[in-house]
TrEMBL record:
Subcellular location per the Swiss-Prot or TrEMBL entry: Cell membrane
Keyword match Magnesium: no
Protein name: Olfactory receptor
The G-protein coupled receptors family 1 profile domain, residue ranges: 41-289
Lineage: Eukaryota, Metazoa, Chordata, Craniata, Vertebrata
Length: 310
Protein backbone atom coordinates (compact mmCIF):
# COMPACT_ATOMS: atom_id res chain seq x y z
CA UNK A 1 0.00 0.00 0.00
CA UNK A 2 1.33 3.45 -0.96
CA UNK A 3 1.74 6.37 1.38
CA UNK A 4 -1.17 8.80 1.90
CA UNK A 5 0.64 11.42 -0.20
CA UNK A 6 0.59 9.11 -3.23
CA UNK A 7 -3.19 8.78 -3.25
CA UNK A 8 -4.28 12.19 -1.98
CA UNK A 9 -6.43 14.04 -4.53
CA UNK A 10 -5.73 17.79 -4.80
CA UNK A 11 -7.54 18.47 -8.08
CA UNK A 12 -10.01 16.86 -10.44
CA UNK A 13 -9.93 16.51 -14.22
CA UNK A 14 -13.26 17.29 -15.90
CA UNK A 15 -14.14 15.33 -19.04
CA UNK A 16 -16.53 18.10 -20.13
CA UNK A 17 -19.69 18.07 -22.22
CA UNK A 18 -18.04 16.35 -25.16
CA UNK A 19 -14.57 15.36 -26.34
CA UNK A 20 -15.33 16.55 -29.88
CA UNK A 21 -14.03 20.12 -30.57
CA UNK A 22 -16.95 21.06 -32.85
CA UNK A 23 -19.48 19.91 -30.28
CA UNK A 24 -17.64 21.91 -27.61
CA UNK A 25 -17.90 25.04 -29.79
CA UNK A 26 -21.66 24.53 -30.23
CA UNK A 27 -22.08 23.99 -26.47
CA UNK A 28 -20.09 27.15 -25.76
CA UNK A 29 -22.38 29.38 -27.84
CA UNK A 30 -25.49 27.77 -26.33
CA UNK A 31 -24.13 28.22 -22.81
CA UNK A 32 -23.11 31.81 -23.51
CA UNK A 33 -26.58 32.68 -24.79
CA UNK A 34 -28.28 30.96 -21.83
CA UNK A 35 -25.91 32.66 -19.37
CA UNK A 36 -26.47 36.16 -20.78
CA UNK A 37 -30.27 35.74 -20.84
CA UNK A 38 -30.26 34.38 -17.28
CA UNK A 39 -27.89 37.07 -16.01
CA UNK A 40 -29.73 39.98 -17.65
CA UNK A 41 -33.25 38.62 -17.08
CA UNK A 42 -32.88 37.64 -13.44
CA UNK A 43 -30.76 40.68 -12.63
CA UNK A 44 -33.34 42.99 -14.18
CA UNK A 45 -36.18 41.37 -12.23
CA UNK A 46 -34.34 41.75 -8.90
CA UNK A 47 -33.59 45.43 -9.62
CA UNK A 48 -37.17 46.22 -10.72
CA UNK A 49 -38.82 44.49 -7.76
CA UNK A 50 -36.54 46.25 -5.26
CA UNK A 51 -36.75 49.65 -6.96
CA UNK A 52 -40.47 49.84 -7.78
CA UNK A 53 -42.91 50.07 -4.86
CA UNK A 54 -45.79 48.79 -7.02
CA UNK A 55 -44.09 45.37 -7.03
CA UNK A 56 -43.76 45.14 -3.24
CA UNK A 57 -46.31 42.33 -2.98
CA UNK A 58 -45.98 38.69 -1.86
CA UNK A 59 -45.98 37.35 -5.44
CA UNK A 60 -43.11 39.58 -6.53
CA UNK A 61 -41.27 38.99 -3.26
CA UNK A 62 -41.15 35.27 -4.12
CA UNK A 63 -40.19 36.08 -7.71
CA UNK A 64 -37.36 38.25 -6.42
CA UNK A 65 -36.09 35.38 -4.26
CA UNK A 66 -36.41 32.94 -7.19
CA UNK A 67 -34.48 35.29 -9.50
CA UNK A 68 -31.79 35.77 -6.85
CA UNK A 69 -31.40 32.00 -6.50
CA UNK A 70 -31.21 31.58 -10.29
CA UNK A 71 -28.72 34.44 -10.55
CA UNK A 72 -26.35 32.82 -8.05
CA UNK A 73 -26.94 29.38 -9.61
CA UNK A 74 -25.97 30.68 -13.06
CA UNK A 75 -22.76 32.21 -11.70
CA UNK A 76 -21.82 29.22 -9.56
CA UNK A 77 -20.42 27.05 -12.35
CA UNK A 78 -21.53 28.34 -15.76
CA UNK A 79 -18.69 30.86 -16.38
CA UNK A 80 -16.10 28.14 -15.62
CA UNK A 81 -17.92 25.63 -17.82
CA UNK A 82 -17.81 28.07 -20.74
CA UNK A 83 -14.08 28.71 -20.29
CA UNK A 84 -13.45 24.95 -20.04
CA UNK A 85 -14.99 24.46 -23.50
CA UNK A 86 -11.68 25.73 -24.92
CA UNK A 87 -9.50 23.29 -22.98
CA UNK A 88 -8.96 19.56 -23.29
CA UNK A 89 -9.73 17.93 -19.96
CA UNK A 90 -9.59 21.06 -17.76
CA UNK A 91 -8.83 20.77 -14.06
CA UNK A 92 -10.52 22.14 -10.94
CA UNK A 93 -9.05 22.22 -7.44
CA UNK A 94 -10.45 19.86 -4.82
CA UNK A 95 -11.87 22.61 -2.61
CA UNK A 96 -13.26 24.67 -5.51
CA UNK A 97 -15.01 21.48 -6.66
CA UNK A 98 -16.59 21.04 -3.21
CA UNK A 99 -17.76 24.67 -3.12
CA UNK A 100 -19.23 24.43 -6.62
CA UNK A 101 -20.99 21.16 -5.81
CA UNK A 102 -22.49 22.14 -2.44
CA UNK A 103 -23.51 25.68 -3.44
CA UNK A 104 -25.29 24.20 -6.47
CA UNK A 105 -26.97 21.60 -4.27
CA UNK A 106 -28.11 24.28 -1.80
CA UNK A 107 -29.59 26.47 -4.55
CA UNK A 108 -31.36 23.69 -6.45
CA UNK A 109 -32.84 22.32 -3.20
CA UNK A 110 -34.07 25.80 -2.29
CA UNK A 111 -35.69 26.22 -5.70
CA UNK A 112 -37.48 22.87 -5.36
CA UNK A 113 -39.29 24.13 -2.25
CA UNK A 114 -39.65 27.72 -3.48
CA UNK A 115 -41.59 26.74 -6.60
CA UNK A 116 -44.14 24.94 -4.40
CA UNK A 117 -44.44 28.06 -2.21
CA UNK A 118 -45.05 30.18 -5.31
CA UNK A 119 -47.78 27.78 -6.43
CA UNK A 120 -49.51 28.19 -3.07
CA UNK A 121 -49.26 31.96 -3.41
CA UNK A 122 -51.02 31.83 -6.79
CA UNK A 123 -53.65 29.49 -5.35
CA UNK A 124 -54.39 31.94 -2.53
CA UNK A 125 -54.54 34.88 -4.96
CA UNK A 126 -56.92 33.20 -7.46
CA UNK A 127 -59.03 30.96 -5.26
CA UNK A 128 -59.26 33.15 -2.15
CA UNK A 129 -58.77 36.72 -3.42
CA UNK A 130 -60.73 38.40 -0.61
CA UNK A 131 -58.50 36.87 2.08
CA UNK A 132 -55.25 36.92 0.10
CA UNK A 133 -53.41 39.60 2.09
CA UNK A 134 -54.49 38.04 5.39
CA UNK A 135 -53.26 34.61 4.27
CA UNK A 136 -50.02 35.80 2.65
CA UNK A 137 -48.90 38.25 5.31
CA UNK A 138 -45.33 39.49 5.17
CA UNK A 139 -44.39 37.53 8.29
CA UNK A 140 -45.79 34.35 6.74
CA UNK A 141 -43.99 34.98 3.41
CA UNK A 142 -40.63 35.55 5.10
CA UNK A 143 -41.18 32.46 7.28
CA UNK A 144 -41.85 30.33 4.18
CA UNK A 145 -38.65 31.50 2.47
CA UNK A 146 -36.67 31.00 5.70
CA UNK A 147 -38.09 27.46 5.98
CA UNK A 148 -37.07 26.70 2.38
CA UNK A 149 -33.54 27.95 3.01
CA UNK A 150 -33.35 26.13 6.33
CA UNK A 151 -34.45 22.80 4.86
CA UNK A 152 -32.05 23.05 1.91
CA UNK A 153 -29.20 24.15 4.21
CA UNK A 154 -29.81 21.17 6.51
CA UNK A 155 -29.85 18.80 3.54
CA UNK A 156 -26.60 20.25 2.20
CA UNK A 157 -24.95 20.05 5.62
CA UNK A 158 -25.80 16.34 5.90
CA UNK A 159 -24.32 15.78 2.43
CA UNK A 160 -21.13 17.49 3.62
CA UNK A 161 -20.95 15.33 6.76
CA UNK A 162 -21.42 12.16 4.69
CA UNK A 163 -18.86 13.22 2.08
CA UNK A 164 -16.35 10.45 1.20
CA UNK A 165 -12.71 11.24 1.98
CA UNK A 166 -10.83 8.40 0.26
CA UNK A 167 -10.50 8.46 -3.54
CA UNK A 168 -7.45 6.21 -3.98
CA UNK A 169 -5.96 8.68 -6.43
CA UNK A 170 -9.00 8.74 -8.74
CA UNK A 171 -9.51 12.27 -9.98
CA UNK A 172 -11.24 12.11 -13.39
CA UNK A 173 -14.86 13.33 -13.21
CA UNK A 174 -16.93 12.32 -16.22
CA UNK A 175 -18.91 15.55 -16.19
CA UNK A 176 -18.62 19.22 -17.16
CA UNK A 177 -18.86 20.37 -13.53
CA UNK A 178 -18.60 18.99 -10.01
CA UNK A 179 -21.85 17.11 -9.46
CA UNK A 180 -22.80 14.91 -6.48
CA UNK A 181 -23.34 11.64 -8.34
CA UNK A 182 -20.14 11.89 -10.40
CA UNK A 183 -18.24 12.88 -7.26
CA UNK A 184 -19.48 9.85 -5.30
CA UNK A 185 -18.56 7.49 -8.16
CA UNK A 186 -14.89 8.40 -7.68
CA UNK A 187 -14.76 7.35 -4.03
CA UNK A 188 -13.16 4.04 -3.13
CA UNK A 189 -14.51 4.17 0.43
CA UNK A 190 -18.02 2.94 1.27
CA UNK A 191 -20.58 5.39 -0.16
CA UNK A 192 -23.69 3.34 0.63
CA UNK A 193 -24.88 5.76 3.34
CA UNK A 194 -24.25 8.81 1.14
CA UNK A 195 -26.11 7.28 -1.81
CA UNK A 196 -29.01 6.19 0.39
CA UNK A 197 -29.34 9.70 1.83
CA UNK A 198 -29.15 11.18 -1.68
CA UNK A 199 -32.12 9.08 -2.81
CA UNK A 200 -34.14 9.77 0.36
CA UNK A 201 -33.43 13.52 0.27
CA UNK A 202 -34.19 13.67 -3.46
CA UNK A 203 -37.50 11.92 -2.91
CA UNK A 204 -38.65 14.34 -0.19
CA UNK A 205 -37.37 17.45 -1.98
CA UNK A 206 -38.95 16.49 -5.31
CA UNK A 207 -42.04 14.30 -5.03
CA UNK A 208 -44.05 16.18 -2.33
CA UNK A 209 -43.40 19.69 -3.78
CA UNK A 210 -44.11 18.54 -7.34
CA UNK A 211 -47.30 16.72 -6.28
CA UNK A 212 -48.39 19.79 -4.32
CA UNK A 213 -47.83 22.01 -7.37
CA UNK A 214 -49.83 19.69 -9.64
CA UNK A 215 -52.75 19.53 -7.17
CA UNK A 216 -52.61 23.29 -6.56
CA UNK A 217 -52.63 24.14 -10.25
CA UNK A 218 -55.45 21.65 -10.72
CA UNK A 219 -57.53 23.61 -8.22
CA UNK A 220 -56.48 26.87 -9.84
CA UNK A 221 -57.53 25.47 -13.22
CA UNK A 222 -60.95 24.56 -11.86
CA UNK A 223 -61.36 28.07 -10.42
CA UNK A 224 -60.37 29.53 -13.79
CA UNK A 225 -62.95 27.40 -15.62
CA UNK A 226 -65.65 28.88 -13.37
CA UNK A 227 -64.62 32.43 -14.29
CA UNK A 228 -67.22 34.37 -16.23
CA UNK A 229 -64.73 36.46 -18.17
CA UNK A 230 -63.52 34.70 -21.32
CA UNK A 231 -60.48 37.00 -21.53
CA UNK A 232 -59.65 36.29 -17.88
CA UNK A 233 -59.86 32.53 -18.48
CA UNK A 234 -57.59 32.76 -21.52
CA UNK A 235 -54.98 34.82 -19.66
CA UNK A 236 -55.04 32.58 -16.59
CA UNK A 237 -54.73 29.37 -18.66
CA UNK A 238 -51.83 30.86 -20.64
CA UNK A 239 -50.02 31.83 -17.43
CA UNK A 240 -50.65 28.51 -15.65
CA UNK A 241 -49.66 26.38 -18.65
CA UNK A 242 -46.36 28.23 -19.10
CA UNK A 243 -45.62 27.89 -15.37
CA UNK A 244 -46.32 24.16 -15.52
CA UNK A 245 -43.98 23.73 -18.49
CA UNK A 246 -41.08 25.24 -16.52
CA UNK A 247 -42.00 23.25 -13.40
CA UNK A 248 -42.24 20.05 -15.46
CA UNK A 249 -38.81 20.59 -17.03
CA UNK A 250 -37.18 21.45 -13.69
CA UNK A 251 -38.64 18.67 -11.54
CA UNK A 252 -38.79 16.10 -14.34
CA UNK A 253 -35.11 16.33 -15.22
CA UNK A 254 -33.98 16.26 -11.57
CA UNK A 255 -36.20 13.24 -10.90
CA UNK A 256 -34.60 11.42 -13.83
CA UNK A 257 -31.17 12.23 -12.42
CA UNK A 258 -31.62 11.55 -8.71
CA UNK A 259 -34.64 9.37 -8.04
CA UNK A 260 -33.98 6.56 -10.54
CA UNK A 261 -31.36 3.83 -9.81
CA UNK A 262 -27.92 5.12 -10.75
CA UNK A 263 -25.62 3.49 -13.34
CA UNK A 264 -21.94 2.96 -12.55
CA UNK A 265 -20.79 5.66 -14.99
CA UNK A 266 -22.14 9.04 -16.11
CA UNK A 267 -23.53 9.05 -19.66
CA UNK A 268 -23.74 11.94 -22.13
CA UNK A 269 -27.51 11.83 -21.63
CA UNK A 270 -27.04 12.57 -17.92
CA UNK A 271 -24.93 15.60 -18.83
CA UNK A 272 -27.66 16.94 -21.11
CA UNK A 273 -30.24 16.41 -18.36
CA UNK A 274 -28.01 18.37 -15.95
CA UNK A 275 -27.96 21.23 -18.45
CA UNK A 276 -31.77 21.23 -18.53
CA UNK A 277 -32.26 22.01 -14.83
CA UNK A 278 -28.96 23.81 -14.21
CA UNK A 279 -28.86 26.09 -17.26
CA UNK A 280 -32.17 26.04 -19.13
CA UNK A 281 -34.48 26.58 -16.14
CA UNK A 282 -32.68 29.69 -14.78
CA UNK A 283 -32.88 31.10 -18.32
CA UNK A 284 -36.60 30.32 -18.73
CA UNK A 285 -37.79 31.45 -15.28
CA UNK A 286 -37.49 35.21 -15.92
CA UNK A 287 -39.03 34.84 -19.39
CA UNK A 288 -41.99 32.80 -18.17
CA UNK A 289 -42.71 34.21 -14.72
CA UNK A 290 -42.03 37.91 -15.05
CA UNK A 291 -40.83 39.56 -18.24
CA UNK A 292 -44.11 38.84 -20.06
CA UNK A 293 -45.98 40.36 -17.11
CA UNK A 294 -47.70 43.72 -17.59
CA UNK A 295 -46.78 44.86 -14.06
CA UNK A 296 -43.08 44.14 -14.67
CA UNK A 297 -43.16 45.98 -18.00
CA UNK A 298 -44.81 48.95 -16.28
CA UNK A 299 -42.16 48.87 -13.54
CA UNK A 300 -39.43 48.84 -16.18
CA UNK A 301 -40.68 52.07 -17.76
CA UNK A 302 -41.29 53.69 -14.36
CA UNK A 303 -37.77 52.91 -13.12
CA UNK A 304 -35.70 53.40 -16.29
CA UNK A 305 -37.99 55.94 -17.94
CA UNK A 306 -37.74 58.11 -14.85
CA UNK A 307 -33.94 57.90 -14.82
CA UNK A 308 -33.60 58.80 -18.51
CA UNK A 309 -35.93 61.77 -18.10
CA UNK A 310 -33.82 63.02 -15.20
Amino acid sequence: MGSPNETRVTEFILIGLSEHPRAQAVFFFFLLMAYLISLLGNGLIVILIIADSHLHTPMYFFLCVLSSVDLILSNNALPEIQVNCFFYRPTISFYRCLVQMYVGLLLVSTECVLLAIMAYDRFAAICQPLHYMQIMSWRFCISLVAAALGLSSLTTLIYILLQPTDFCGRNVINHFACEVQSFLKLACSDTHTSELFMHVASFFLLIPPFSFIVVTYGRIGWAVILMRSKEGRKKAFSTCSSHLVVVGVFYGTIMIMYVKPQPKSTSDQDKIISLMYGVLTPMLNPLIYSLRNRDVKGAFWRVFGRKTSE
